[in-house]
Amino acid sequence: MDAIDECGGTACCGEICKTFGVKVTKDRALRWVMVSFAWFALLSSQTLMHAQTRPAASEPTSVVASNTPAIASGAYVGEEACRSCHKAEFREFHKTVHARIPAKEGHVAGCEVCHGPGKAHSDAEEAAHGDDAATAAANKLVFSFRGSPRENWERCQQCHTSSHEQSEFERSTHARHGVGCNECHATHLVEAARDPNRHTLDGAQATFFSVPNLGAEVRWLNSSLLKESQPKLCNECHANVVAQFALPNHHPVPEGAMKCTDCHSPHGADGNRSMLREAGYESCVRCHVEKRGPFVFEHASVRVMGCTSCHTPHGTINKFLMVKREQRFLCLSCHVAPQAANTPHSRLSFQTSGDCTRCHVSIHGSNFDVDYTH
Questions:
Q1: Antiparallel, parallel or unpaired: β 365-366 and 297-298
Q2: Per-residue pLDDT tens for 263-286?
Q3: Helix 132-139 and helix 119-128: axis angle, to 10°?
């Protein structure tokens, strides 16, 4: 208590004296407080460095244009002939990167790179003079991406094979289910030409965040030539996922803060069942960096089965996107045998209420304790 008299009997110094049992002057107590605040600021900055992040923008795939066929065959008519009939398509096409592909001297450029020789089609259209039957016959004389899905995406992959992601498309789930490139992408979005500032009605969730709502043409040109924005385009087929994102707890995809391709690769990913960009839990820790580790003591389920062994990524009614409502029941789905090595508790010692993480706080991994209690 002499220390209280030395510093004037202030409450903070008195508490320090009582706690540590030492004499503390007023200046020394002030220095201790300043050092404590410095340590708190340092730990806070370290926590922020390892906190969850927003998904990074997907890196664009590198594409090398293949050698275009030579014009010498006489079957090619040139893109100006296409322009006379297909004005809207021609105008939209020349806004895309496809129109900027350099063509070697004496080689084909423009529309016929993708659609093939057009002279027979052009001559037949001129000879049709507006007759519907003759016009329909003329349309079959050029490749118009109305064939089978395989024929369509094989035409695109004449160039789109240099990137590893797109070269895997033949093995992807989309290809096996008959989805071609033109189901999602449009090389000339005529609808955007008719109404460049067209906006579609979005759900209420899309208004929760201040995400820019781009016009149809601007969005198309800056989003890999997709016909619609994500997730609206994906929702046309994946209706079951739409229902999951409507549940109370979900990743902010409907709100526009994330998009499907942040996690999934639509062109295929080395035989990955869900077409995830990374294998296992690596897709999740791209954003949840604080869960990456490496840890001295790692939770085996994360490494073996991944995050989905405990979490439902699209949406659920449970907190933290958990698979089960009661956390202890989720733990007991693996730690079920009372005498097993991974269940050190005896048969009657399991807690009857509350969560296992009251004690096992570092459930994703720990550098200090094999039981994840630190």
A1: antiparallel
A2: 998 887 666 778 888 877 888 988
A3: 180
Q: Which residue has the higher pLDDT, 131 or 43?
A: 131
CA 14 – CA 5 distance, rounded (Å)? 9
Other C-beta atoms closer than 10 Å to the C-beta of 47 total 10
Cα distances from 134 to residues 76, 137, 146, in angstroms, run: 21, 5, 18
The residue among 352 and 355 whose pLDDT is bigger is 355
Measure the CA–CA gap between 177 and 169, rounded to whole angstroms. 12
305 touches 334 (CB < 8 A): no
Q: Residue type at 336?
A: V
> Cα 157 from chain centroid?
23
The 8-class DSSP code of residue 57 comes to P
* Residue 101 near residue 109 (C-beta atoms within 8 A): yes
Q: Give pTM, 2 decimals.
A: 0.73
Percent of the chain at pLDDT > 70 equals 70
What pLDDT was estimated at residue 352? 60
Alpha helices by DSSP H, listed for 21-169, are 26-49, 79-83, 87-93, 112-115, 119-128, 132-139, 149-156, 164-167
Give, in order, the Cα–Cα distances in Å from 317 to each of 180, 206, 266.
Answer: 35, 20, 27
Over the stretch 167-182, which tens digit does the pLDDT of each residue have?
A: 888 888 888 889 999 9
